[in-house]
Amino acid sequence: MIVKNEEQVLERCLSSVMGIVDEIIIVDTGSNDRTKEIASQFTDHIHDFIWVNDFSAARNFAFQQATQEYILWLDADDILLEEDADKFRQLKNHLPSDTDAVSMIYNLAFDEHGNVTSSLRRNRLVKRTNNFKWIGVVHEYLEVYGNIHNAEISITHDRKHTQSSRNLHIYENKEAAGLPFSSRDLYYYANELLDHGLWERSLYQYERFLERGDGWVEDVISAYGKAGDCLHSLGRTLEAKAKVLQAFAHTLPRAENCCRLGYYHMEEANYEDAVYWYKTAAALVRPQNTQAILNHACWSWLPHLQLCVCYNKLGLNSLAHEHNELAAVYIPNDQRILSNRSYFQSLNLIAATPG
């Protein structure tokens, strides 16, 4: 692990893996709180690393300190829930010796009911002797190859920090210094600008990334959608639709982009076209074992809830009620579902629930 000022979350993280891993290595990049004191309760392997605005440099240094056969990496606001800890113990006991890396599910966000709303796969456990390297100053990735096992183990991300401008400033400083940007750098620079509401600048970086034509296909698909969001936020909705549609030239439609198009049409009160895109999203099958970030709502309840609204606007309340119930399969206690039911009861479309 690499850490800095993680006193709020570090004990929780380390407690979740204590007794599962065989050694714990902490690389501190300049904490001035109780981070190192907390770490010392779990391990003697605490190292200092002078921060050089490069996450890969810090992570590669951390990997160099490892001595065991495999390396597991975590961030301080990650935890291993008990059911996943049990799965990890089983994996340790049965992992074939020729395994080069193990990917695990990374659950990034949750709704108020605890359902996962965003996730992806990341290579989490790697064979030390392969000397896999981290690449990228920000939003770094671990470059792996060989025999990769996809495990049904989840790492839970429970962020406690507020939005930070740290990553954006790293990119801005790199740009000001005239340093070269990889295509991946451009994509994540655009994401940082988008997160800060800097639509014009974000759109420019997405265009630079897309013009190169050598980006990872999942980043390309995402970039078309996010560039569409920039254009939409700038009031250029027709251009936004055209930009999102360009993603379909690279692969079959994805639910996230279909929902984007549905939303753009809904905002224009063009409910018939919105229905088309939300029905398309609802019919898609969520991909498995992908390292792309998935918005689970777009692959489950969101298209149905939006279809409920669209059909109601079109005066087709039987269909609206049908899709409200389809959404309820995924989020049965959501207040929107319950409010819609009350509304349809008032229209005598469904019987009142017995008291």
TrEMBL record:
Entries under Pfam families matching the protein: Glycos_transf_2
Domain Glycosyltransferase 2-like per the UniProt entry, residue ranges: 1-87
Cited InterPro entries: Glyco_trans_2-like, Nucleotide-diphossugar_trans, TPR-like_helical_dom_sf
SUPFAM superfamilies, per database record: Nucleotide-diphospho-sugar transferases, TPR-like
Top-rank taxon: Bacteria
Protein's recorded name: Glycosyltransferase family 2 protein
Organism of origin: Paenibacillus radicis (ex Xue et al. 2023)
Lineage: Bacteria, Bacillati, Bacillota, Bacilli, Bacillales
